[in-house]
Amino acid sequence: SVAPLTGPQTHIGKDNENGARLAVEEINAEGLTLGGKKVKLELLGEDDQAEPKTATIVAQKLVDAGVVAVIGHLNSGTTIPASRIYHDAGIPQISPSATAVAYTAQGYNTAYRVMANDAQQGKALGQFAVAKLGAKKIAIIDDRTAYGQGLADEFEKAALAAGGEIVAHEFTNDKATDFTAILTSIKGKSPDLVFFGGMDPQGGPMAKQLKRLGLTARLLGGDGLQNANFVQLAGADAEGVLASSPGLPIDSMPGGPAFREMFESKYGVIQVYAPYAYDAVYALVAAMKRADSATPAKVLAELPKTDLQGVSGPIKFDAKGDTQGGAVTLYEVKGGAWQVLETVK
User: Fold this and answer.
1) Which of 30, 36, 275, 308 suits 20 as a labelling partner, its CA being 20 to 30 A distant?
2) Cα 202 off chain centre by
3) How much is the pTM?
4) What angle do CA 106, 115, 313 make, to 5 degrees?
């Protein structure tokens, strides 16, 4: 399992790892037999620090260690460069959370994900902004990562197609915390809505600064904002912020309520992707069972046949390795917590 386990995204990284770990512990407790022998799964948790260069170092380390599969990475910007290393080594990779279209567009037969991609999410966000929120003048900020830029570009396409006007498209990075200059520039364009393609360590301060500068525009983001940590970081200024997340709300997932109870009793509050990491492990192990082997080549031959009822919903892969029919849910912070607005399928 690879995710950021240090730095500002640690909370989401540990969430992914714990989701995978819970599945591994369950499967080991039930007992797993492959090729007539009882086997035990061992989860190696590695830290890529949400850094593309570190991700490739970690990926090579795992290949050298002889891992049979990888659950990860968390970020698109780390998943994409690491995916080439896994592909060249013939190792199956299932990401619970990388949403950039580019990840599965490379033609790698090793690359899978169990979550809707940014084309689906960006389209839902763009249409929602114009049709449901009535936004006419829209400003966009993205963090230039594979995720943030990819989602912002898909949002922009969909918002323009729906009849919205993009009055600004500004850029930051995934280490910044001061957005005063960008927001001051945007304020002069009088937008109804500010869309941010990025993660909560930037989104939280941005929400505060947006209010402090007197912008009346609503703040809208993707799954990078839609977690408990964003609400903590933004405090009272989180109120009214909108964001999407691929998939169904946890309480609407087929196995969501039971998973939440099980997960939170061990690890605390679910941030966002834990159910998907859990499902990714079960999809992988189901392929191992069909192959009656943990040999990567044999597992890869079985992964396209995946047809699993996961905690998050049905899991089937298309020819690219994308999950079929992924839903996108829109949320708003009300009363200091994310509340469901609607789900688009």
Assistant:
1) 36
2) 16
3) 0.94
4) 140
